[in-house]
């Protein structure tokens, strides 16, 4: 199985929140150990100026067996409204994935998502049972 955690975050506040809440919850029981068994990439969609701040936070976590990559958003139009800009940044993260998209399980995260214990373990169980999975987006 292949996973790509698409993570659009930028700005000091959102990056701090992400690493205090979302990223920390990835290390709950049944999450990180499950992801490390598979080909897992974490794609940070961010501005060039925020990459170093993200790198500093990553040093506090054991991310061996995980691929970390960055997609720079500096060339996206900042004239778009926030919701549109967020969607463009997610799309840019997806398009940066060079592997066959029908084989990649994309997981979309925001700076304030919280993963419960065994969240990824349960997702993997479901994916192993089903041949096809649908993604739903809310407005």
Structural descriptors:
alpha/beta; 4-stranded parallel β-sheet; 5 helices; 4 strands; globular
Descriptive account of the structure:
This protein has 139 residues and is an alpha/beta fold. The protein has one domain: Spore Coat Polysaccharide Biosynthesis Protein SpsA, Chain A, CATH 3.90.550. 38% of the residues lie in helices and 19% in strands. The chain contains 5 helices and 4 strands; from the N terminus they run E-H-H-E-H-E-H-E-H. It has a 4-stranded parallel sheet. Helix 3 links the parallel strand 2 and strand 3. Helix 1 packs parallel to helix 3. The protein is globular. The two termini are 29 Å apart.
Topology:
Elements: E1 2-8, H1 12-26, H2 32-36, E2 39-46, H3 51-58, E3 66-72, H4 82-95, E4 104-108, H5 119-129
Parallel strand pairs: 1-2, 1-4, 2-3
Structural class: alpha/beta
Portion in helices: 25-40%
Counting structural domains, the number is 1
Question: So what's the oligomer here?
Answer: single chain
Strand count: 4
CATH class assignment:
Alpha Beta
Largest sheet: 4 strands, parallel
CATH topology: Spore Coat Polysaccharide Biosynthesis Protein SpsA, Chain A
Shape: globular
CATH architecture: Alpha-Beta Complex
Give the rounded overall mean pLDDT.
Answer: 89
Termini, distance in Å? 29 Å
Rg result = 15 Å
How many individual helices? 5
Low-confidence stretches: none
């Amino acid at each position: 199985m292949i996973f790509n955690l698409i993570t659009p975050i930028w700005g000091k506040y959102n990056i701090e929140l992400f690493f205090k809440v979302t990223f920390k919850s990835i290390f709950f029981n049944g999450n990180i150990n499950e992801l490390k068994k598979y080909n897992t990439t974490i794609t940070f969609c961010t501005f060039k100026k925020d990459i170093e701040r993200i790198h500093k936070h990553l040093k506090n976590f054991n991310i061996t067996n995980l691929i970390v990559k960055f997609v720079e958003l500096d060339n996206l139009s900042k004239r778009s409204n926030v919701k549109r800009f967020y969607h463009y940044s997610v799309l840019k993260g997806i398009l940066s994935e060079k592997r066959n998209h029908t084989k990649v399980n994309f997981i979309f995260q925001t700076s304030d998502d919280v993963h419960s214990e065994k969240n990824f373990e349960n997702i993997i169980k479901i994916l192993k049972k089903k041949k096809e999975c649908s993604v739903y987006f809310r407005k």
